[in-house]
From TrEMBL:
This protein's name: SMEK homolog 1
Domain PP4R3 EVH1-like: from-to ranges: 5-101
Region (Disordered): 670-699, 720-821
GO cellular component: cytosol; nuclear speck; protein phosphatase 4 complex
Ranges of biased composition (kind: Polar residues): 721-749, 772-781
Entry-linked PANTHER family: ATP SYNTHASE GAMMA-RELATED, SERINE_THREONINE-PROTEIN PHOSPHATASE 4 REGULATORY SUBUNIT 3A
Length: 821
């Protein structure tokens, strides 16, 4: 369709009492079989899809507002509005609605908006209209009482509104206002204040259009100056006429647009400054006032957006070197306010708005403005830039990448932003914080697009690290050339903290780009110089940066840290902190605890080998002793790879059982014939026969001795399993040797097998099925006829700790069964 008369926007009112744009299309009316009646239909102009299908209900109250709006409610909390491009189209649809409802098209509302009581309905039948007192000075008190008494009743509000419309009553009241002011009749002015305030609460667009007309609006504001609660009247008119000046930075040729801007400013002023803050009961009564302002702003933005000459002149003067500073400041402030107005637009319209600005050259213009010396102009330009980044970061990224092909790095838009962040003169760095947030948005991969042909993330990050990262890190590198920061004042520390925050974000979200940069430029070493800063927040920022790197558990980073001995500044800061229990102390301990818990072997070995002497006396936490234990276990595994492999096999065969299953299986263990178990034995290759027995037994004995004291205090539990189709905690080896060999690590003499001190032997030594048991751990290998049984041994401390945490009932010693002839 090309009929612009029927072109409309569809709006719905959301929970926040704001209008949401549902799309643009063309409206028509016709009979819809499914709805059984005449309906309003709106089809989208983009794809012809149905935006709205609404039956014209005979009892629904439709309102016509501002000649181009039709508003109605379809449910208790579902309000709809059609905003027409042309008045003629609005009139046509209004006539259709009135025809269906049997109303005169000259009215602005088709139904009473109320659920009145039976008493009110009786009143309505007996008195079809509300008769207003004659508009005279002597009757102002009576009029004020009538307005106040009508507000609680929806029906009486409707009648009052209709009476005020039909009789041109508002203009008569405003004439009385002039009389009262001339006579200095304060009582009359107080009554007029109450009357005008009450008319606002009637919430009628038709009345607002009269009150906000060019000839009436200043008198309405005048009436609202005389609040009876104030001893002296306010001077709102004086402010609007003398203080507030309308500046046309670019001449506006459209008189309708100019009038709309004036009207919107004044109505916004009335809402924000003149009217008293509405009570909870009055809040919804001003919804039409909110809507009036909203639609005015949408209309202003739309009219300016469509005026290509206006925008062309605006950007031409912004970038013209001949434009004087005062004029340029006005132009930038106008553009900032223009962008702020766009916040009233819905997302799809806002995107179109910024696309228009982009086509007009807003980014090159901002680049010129940001290069100027005027701080106020730069501040306004930063605000405009933030609007652009917030709503379309991809557009900004695309511009700066294209720009890099033509210009030097120094004058790139993104580098200008970084330089302004670094050079912010504000002691609190308010502007720098805002700019850092914008840079973070620009380098955030989460909002980058990926298409079939290219990936924005790859292209932009490659550009950023090549052309911009050196500018960002310049203050950091300049300040860390020695063992401590060369400048350590508060403002420098704040700036470096911002830079570190952005670099930490990069470590977390960028992969190889930031890794290559940190390792090649030795960034971490320079950052850790800041651990010596007198400002705790900066030292903590440096520590957080390193902690983020360690948290990645990347061996490239780990090798870089070890090669450059980059734990030294951290250990030094920890020791300098002394016994103080503060954030620095906790953060450093947490970093070492992470290394221990995550078992980062390379860093564990590096820390213990190089810094153990400095840390061994720290005993108020077990972190460093735990790291030492990890290191020792790691060394033992390296020295005895066979032991490590046996431990891993045992660990893999471990599983949990409940107590009842344990008891049953122990009973079955003692009652099971040994010959039934031979099928479950594992086979060892003949090459293992040549292993020296001491090589196997020596490390086991070390483990036994290390755990003896601890385990002697714990209750021994026999752990036996039925080997029929199940795993056994005992470990069996089968050798092809025909010789018989007994290898045992000697237990204490008092606990030799068969001795009186041996607790609870189930049989005498040498009898079938007998197992010697002692409080000390015993490792034995018995070989006969090619069968070898190896006693299970306890795991290292790490596994014991983990097992104890998970299940207290898990036995700490196990009983092994030996094969005997």
């Amino acid at each position: 369709m090309t009929d612009t008369r029927r072109r409309v926007k569809v709006y719905t009112l959301n929970e926040d009492r704001q209008w949401d744009d549902r799309g643009t299309g063309h409206v028509s009316s016709g009979y819809v079989e499914r709805l059984k009646g005449m309906s309003l239909l709106v089809r989208a102009e983009s794809d012809g899809s149905l935006l709205l299908e609404s039956k014209i209900n005979p009892n629904t109250a439709y309102q016509k507002q501002q000649d181009t709006l039709i508003v109605w409610s379809e449910a208790e909390n579902y309000d709809l509005a059609l905003s027409f491009q042309e008045k003629a189209g609005c009139d046509e649809i209004w006539e259709k609605i009135c025809q269906v409802q049997g109303k005169d098209p000259s009215v602005d509302i088709t139904q009473d908006l109320v659920d009145e009581s039976e008493e009110e309905r009786f009143d309505d039948m007996s008195s079809p209209g509300l008769e207003l007192p004659s508009c005279e000075l002597s009757r102002l008190e009576e009029i004020a009482e009538l307005v106040a008494s009508s507000l609680p009743s929806p029906l009486r509000r409707e009648k009052l509104a209709l009476a005020l419309e039909n009789e041109g009553y508002i203009k008569k009241l405003l004439e009385l206002f002039h009389v009262c002011e001339d006579l200095e009749n304060i009582e009359g002015l107080h009554h007029l204040y109450e009357i005008i305030k009450g008319i606002f609460l009637l919430n009628r667009t038709a009345l607002f259009e009269v009150m906000f007309s060019e000839e009436c609006i200043m008198d309405v504001i005048g009436c609202l100056e005389y609040d009876p609660a104030l001893s002296q009247p306010r001077k709102h008119r004086e402010f609007l006429t003398k203080t507030a000046k309308f500046k046309e930075v670019i001449p506006i040729s459209d008189p309708e647009l100019k009038q709309k801007i004036h009207q919107t400013y004044r109505v916004q002023y009335i809402q924000d400054m003149v009217l008293p803050t509405p009570s909870v009961f009055e809040e919804n009564m001003l919804s039409t006032l909110h809507s009036f302002i909203f639609f005015n702003k949408v209309e202003i933005v739309g009219m300016l957006q469509e005026d290509e000459k206006f925008l062309t002149d605006l950007f031409a003067q912004l970038t013209d070197e001949a434009t004087d500073e005062e004029k340029r400041q006005e132009l930038v402030n106008f553009l900032k306010e223009f962008c702020a107005f766009s916040q009233t637009l819905q997302p799809q319209n806002r995107d179109a708005f910024f696309k228009t600005l982009s086509n007009m050259g807003i980014l090159p213009a901002l680049e010129v403005i940001l290069g100027m010396d005027d701080t106020q102009v730069r501040s306004a330009a930063t605000d405009i830039f933030s609007y652009l980044v917030e709503y379309n970061p991809s557009m900004v990224r695309e511009f700066v990448m294209q720009e890099a092909q033509q210009n030097d790095d120094d004058i790139l838009l993104i580098n200008l932003i970084i330089e302004h962040m670094i050079c912010d003169t504000d002691p609190e760095l308010g502007g720098a914080v805002q700019l850092m947030g914008l840079l973070r948005t620009l380098v955030d991969p989460e909002n980058m697009l990926a298409t079939a042909n290219k990936t924005e993330k790859t292209e932009f990050l490659g550009f950023f690290y090549k052309h911009c990262m050196h500018v960002l890190t310049a203050p950091l590198l300049a300040n860390t050339t020695e063992d401590k920061p060369s400048k350590d004042d508060f403002q420098t520390a704040q700036l470096l903290a911002l830079v570190l925050e952005l670099l930490t974000f990069c470590v977390e979200h960028h992969t190889y780009h930031i890794k290559n940069y940190i390792i090649n430029k030795d960034i971490l070493r320079r950052v850790l110089v800041l651990m010596a800063s007198k400002h705790a927040f900066l030292a903590l920022c440096a520590l957080r940066f390193k902690r983020k790197i360690i948290g990645l558990k990347d061996e490239f980073y780990n090798r870089y840290i070890m090669k450059s001995f980059l734990f030294e500044p951290v250990v030094k800061a920890f020791l300098n902190n002394g016994s103080r229990y503060n954030l620095m102390n906790s953060a450093i301990i947490e970093m070492f605890e992470f290394i221990r818990v995550e078992d980062i072997k390379s860093l564990t070995a590096h820390v213990i080998e190089n810094y153990w002497k400095a840390l061994e006396d720290v005993d108020y936490v077990q972190t460093f002793k735990g790291l030492k234990l990890r290191f020792e276990q790691q060394r033992e595994r390296q020295d005895n790879p066979k032991l490590d492999s046996m431990r891993s096999i045992l660990r893999n065969h471990r599983y949990r059982r409940d107590a009842r299953t344990l008891e049953d299986e122990e009973e079955m263990w003692f009652n099971t014939d040994e010959d039934d178990m031979e099928d479950g034995e594992a086979v060892v290759s003949p090459s293992d026969k040549t292993k020296n027995d001491d090589d196997i037994m020596d490390p086991i004995s070390k483990f036994m001795e290390r755990k003896k004291l601890k385990e002697s205090e714990e209750k021994e539990v026999l752990l036996k399993t039925n080997l029929s189709g199940r795993q056994s905690p005992s470990f069996k080896l089968s050798l092809s040797s025909g010789t018989k060999t007994n290898l045992t690590s000697q237990p204490p003499a008092t606990n030799l097998p068969g001795s009186p001190g041996s607790p609870g032997s189930p049989g005498s030594p040498g009898s079938p099925g007998s197992v010697p048991k002692s409080t000390s751990q015993t490792a034995a290998i018995t070989t006969k006829g090619g069968l070898v049984g190896l006693v299970d041994y306890p795991d290292d401390d790490e596994d014991d700790d983990e097992d104890e945490d998970k299940e207290d009932t898990l036995p700490l010693s196990k009983k092994a069964k030996f094969e005997s002839s």
